[in-house]
Amino acid sequence: MKSLFGNYLPLAMNAIEKCSFPLSFLAYEGADIDSWRSTTRAKVMELLSYQADPCPMQARVDRSYVKDGLVVEHVSYDQPFGPRTEGILLYPSERTGKLPAVVALHDHGGFKYFGKEKLVELDDEPEIMREFKQAAYEGSSWATKLAKRGYVVFVPDVFLWGSRKTDVESVPEEYVLPVLREAPGSRAYIEAYNRFAGEYESMVAKTLFLAGTTWTGIMAYEDRRAVDYLLTRPEVDGDRIGCGGLSGGGLRTIYLAGLDDRIKCAVCVGFMSTNREVVAHRIQRHTWMMHVPHLSSYLDMPDILSLSGPHAVMVQYDIDDPLWTIEGQEESDRKLKAIYEKMGAGDRYRGLFYPGPHKFDNQMQEDAFRWLDQWLFNDGNTAR
């Protein structure tokens, strides 16, 4: 099979083969998990290279209503840069005491015009959104489904999606003419915006790298800030917070669960492989938002997620996923099992393989929800 790196692929493979992942827990010779986690997280944060300026959240509820037994709140809060983050908070209208909470992390999907809307059941959804949900989620709005099980669920937009997307009026006209020619909000406008945003990714990455920071670092910061917001809510039990998401949401899960001890249970869907397999066979399939210079010198992709250990982690793999080789997925599963066994927490990792392409379908959602139930509702006992 020919490589996009052409005759220089051996150079890249030689480099990745030399990566011994010295900060992996499998290489750790001590007995103190907390010490390993602290040292390794510090290195990851160093390489993410994003230190946000202090910024009061100034959160507010912009709109609230009750729909099908759920309180639905459209909320917003400030970031150190750019427009306010908008998110949707859902929780049962009838509740007793504080509830477990989940940060539902939307995907990449080549669809940046919307973010949070991909996961929530809303009135008057455009047809293009219904089509997207059918392809990625078997037609389900999984954040709404999860809230109906008794959770507080928070779905925030992340950097460059939805409320945080690039303002086309701020970009030189020559780059956004196809967008500006269409009627704002129309299907043609949304499709043109998504094409522009996809083509714009290399400019985003180059700008951030040369500025001394990373897209991944900004993403990870914003997702930790979403947890900060949850902890301001009186409905939330701060000791029972989880997270999860598909694809780009799976990437976000890796970093949020791996870097934030407040996350007690995570479900990573459709985003797990070894770096070697990505370099060799799947580099063209992936967004710039996953790239952190030099991180492979210390950790493989499964190692980053394992920083959440011994908190509970489920990874859902799609056998026919074009984003990953099956070899990379299976090797990651073996590595995560070995790490959790070494931690003495073998029951807190579960890897599940499903037939079919890149997706988070209804069966996968039900399995994920039962995992969250087990560790957030029942503290490791039998699921509800």
From TrEMBL:
KW Transit peptide (keyword) present: no
Keywords linked to the UniProt accession: Hydrolase
Annotated coiled-coil segments of the chain: none
Keyword Protein biosynthesis in annotation: no
Transmembrane segments: none
Gene3D superfamilies reported for this sequence: alpha/beta hydrolase
Pfam family membership, one: DLH
Domain Dienelactone hydrolase as annotated: residue spans: 143-268
A GO molecular-function descriptor: hydrolase activity
InterPro entries: AB_hydrolase_fold, Dienelactn_hydro, FrsA_esterase
Protein name: Dienelactone hydrolase family protein
